[in-house]
Amino acid sequence: MTTSNLPVRNTRIIADVKCYYCGHVGGQMISRRNQPLKATDFVPRPGYKGELPRPGSRLRCERCSGPVFLEDAGSAIVPTAAVDKALARRLAARKKAA
């Protein structure tokens, strides 16, 4: 399945937030595929000690305060409650048939 065939509603774009100066990865930006990125889309790595970005502020490296960029962007399908229920019904039907 290619990225262009993924359902837009459940697809998220995920990218690492990496420092230009020291190469440190401070976290990830996770957003819906059809939405612009916002400061609130930043998900810090475990143990993150920098300031969390606020609307209107620039995200900086927690180690050296250098500028950051997005790297290794990709898409992922996030299951919904309806998908989980459908999978549970299929599993129950298979167990019942066996």
List the helices and strands and how they pair.
Elements (H helix, E strand, L loop, with lengths): L10 E9 L5 E8 L9 E3 L23 E10 L3 H17 L1
Antiparallel strand pairs: 1-2, 1-4, 2-3
Please supply descriptive tags for the structure shown above.
4-stranded antiparallel β-sheet; 4 strands; elongated; 98 residues; alpha+beta
What does this structure look like?
By secondary structure, the chain is of the alpha+beta class. The chain has one domain (3-97). It is built from one helix and four strands; from the N terminus they run ββββα. The protein has one helix spanning 81-97; strands spanning 11-19, 25-32, 42-44, 68-77.
Strand order of the largest sheet: 3-2-1-4
- The helix content, as a percent range, equals 10-25%
Estimated share of beta-strand residues: 25-35%
Described by strand count, sense and barrel closure, the largest sheet is:
4 strands, antiparallel
List low-confidence stretches: none
Sum this structure up briefly.
The chain is 17% helix and 31% strand. The protein is α+β, with helices and mostly antiparallel strands. A hairpin with a 5-residue loop joins strand 1 (11-19) and strand 2.
